[in-house]
Amino acid sequence: MLRVALPLAVLIWPAFPQAAVNPLQQALSLFNSGKYQECFDVVSPFVQRNPNSGAGHKLLGMDEYMLGKPREALSEVQRATELTPDDGDAFYYLGRLYFSADNAVAALAAFQKAISLDPSSVRDYNHLGQTFEGLGRTADAERAYLKAIELDRDQKTKSEWPYYNLGLLYLNNSRSDDAISYFRQALACNPAFAEAKIKLAVALSNGKLSNDALKLLEEAIKIEPRNAEAHYRLALLLSKSGRQDEAQEHFTLFEKYRKP
Fold first, then answer.
1. Which of 54, 129, 156, 230 could be a cystine partner for 83, CB 3.0 to 4.6 Å?
2. Entry pTM
3. How many helices (H) does the chain have, and how many strands (E)?
């Protein structure tokens, strides 16, 4: 039901209390390096020793999510929000967990709380937009994405996600020209964003600009050779162009790489 944007596997939050710096910073470093079991081995005993550490519960919860334990993760991050009710970051991750569990109503409340604590957060508004989409509230989703983009324009490091998600919203609602504009802005933020290239190609091919679409799909495949959708979209365009042998090659690769 819900689309997921942004990796869960990178956590960034304010500095921990001085007494907790060493074990939690060690665990956080392990988490951000993808060493989830090693992170668990550090943070779990820390939380047992420090049951009132909101930061500890938050990190333990996100680590458990990456270890394939979504229920335990949700419980830990809920506990983090109870212990540190002014931590917008904890409510953001709580929203992400609800979002990934297709609980849009609970995710909405969490993201709204996160925004109340940090009104300048691009990521919070971006995920608020996705949650509104999950609830079928398209106009609210559009406003949330536009707010995220407004905030993003003042950031030194740009995020491609609100531009991409707004473009996808427009594409899915037959507004190809608007979609093209925002996919291009997403690519200006991240030129190696394969999914944005694919969706831009779809929007362009709707407008009969097939040569540009072909080029974008070829670029996407160079970036992500195993991207099933890129092969499928390219096969369709090649077939329409009469290049049947090439099209068949990409149909075969689509079948090879698509998820069951």
1. 54
2. 0.88
3. 14, 0
